TrEMBL record:
It holds the Pfam family EamA. Residues 11-140, 160-291 form the EamA domain. It comes from the Archaea. It comes from Halobaculum saliterrae. GO terms for cellular component: membrane. Keywords: Membrane, Transmembrane, Transmembrane helix. This is EamA family transporter. The chain crosses the membrane at residues 7-30, 36-53, 69-87, 93-117, 129-152, 158-177, 189-209, 221-243, 250-270, 276-295.
Length: 298
């Protein structure tokens, strides 16, 4: 099936899936670290039986070299910090601002891909990224600059926005490491190792903060499972699959569609109504995504 799905179609599915993440996180009342932990744990639970049922994937675990294992561990730690910081940012700022800022990762990805992976980024790709980032800036600060009525701001937008930027930097590290590893490792063994490292990192952080691991209601467990099945399996796992077929800069800028999807869902499901300036910024983000996707095919 992997060979029959066009990479850009896979990316479109992933963008829709990850767009639901912020809504599911907001609906949950559990601590941020607990939400992040169980999202990853349930993702592993969904993927591991499939992985073990495939002889080629089972054999791949024993073929992972020391260097690749170390890189996969680093990728898992980066993913854990991304989840922890971003989930927490949603407590302090609006969905539109948090999800937009966490997708500032192309700034880090393009620089890292050029410096570490020797990827060439053409002028059209750079232009698409620039347009998308302009849209992100409009969504984030346009209301304040123009004196327009802002979107729901949250109790501490500055702190929440800073956490979202940290999440963006860690997401970029995760994407870059994944781009390198996915050239050598099959999809499912790679993500199982990365997600397992991510889960162990989040577990250590959860225990260190003294958050309980049990005692949550049925609704919370359903939300944890939904985070795993939607954004986890159809979102991040499909993104990892795409990294073997598409340049990391294209993957990252495609994910800039997430703020638009999440903002729309927040309007419908959370009654968070952003201003016209924020909506215009979302349109500019989409223009950047389209420009970059077309540049990749030209």
């Amino acid at each position: 099936m992997e060979e029959r799905v066009p990479p850009l179609v896979g990316l479109a599915v992933a963008v829709v899936a990850v767009s639901t993440s912020a809504i599911l996180v907001e609906w949950s009342g559990a601590p941020s670290l607990v939400k992040a932990l169980y999202r990853v744990v349930f993702t592993i639970a969904l993927l591991l039986p499939i992985t073990l049922a495939r002889p080629r994937d089972r054999a791949a675990f024993g073929k992972i070299g020391t260097r690749d294992l170390l890189l996969a561990v680093l990728s898992g730690v980066a993913l854990a910090v991304h989840f922890a910081s971003w989930f927490e940012s949603l407590r302090w700022t609006s969905v539109a601002a948090s999800v937009t800022l966490v997708q500032a990762q192309p700034l880090f990805v393009v620089a890292g891909a050029w410096a570490l992976l020797d990827e060439r980024v053409g002028p059209k790709t750079v232009a698409g990224i620039a347009v998308a980032l302009v849209g992100m800036a409009v969504m984030s600060v346009g209301d304040a600059l123009l004196g327009a009525a802002p979107a729901v701001a949250g109790p501490d937008p500055v702190y929440g926005n800073a956490l979202a930027v940290l999440g963006a930097a860690m997401a970029a590290a995760y994407v870059l490491l994944g781009r390198s590893l996915r050239q050598r490792l099959p999809l499912l063994p790679y993500v199982v190792v990365v997600y397992a490292t991510c889960a162990l990192t989040l577990l250590a952080a959860t225990l260190a903060r003294g958050h309980p691991l049990l005692g949550y209601g049925t609704e919370e467990w359903v939300l944890f499972l939904a985070m795993a099945a939607g954004p986890g399996v159809f979102g991040h796992t499909v993104i990892n699959w795409a990294l073997a077929h598409v340049e990391s800069s294209v993957v990252s800028v495609s994910l800039l569609g997430e703020p638009v999807g999440s903002t729309i869902l927040a309007m419908v499901l959370l009654a968070e109504f952003p201003s016209l300036v924020t909506l215009v910024g979302g349109g500019v983000v989409l223009a950047g995504v389209i420009t970059t996707a077309r540049a990749r095919e030209s």
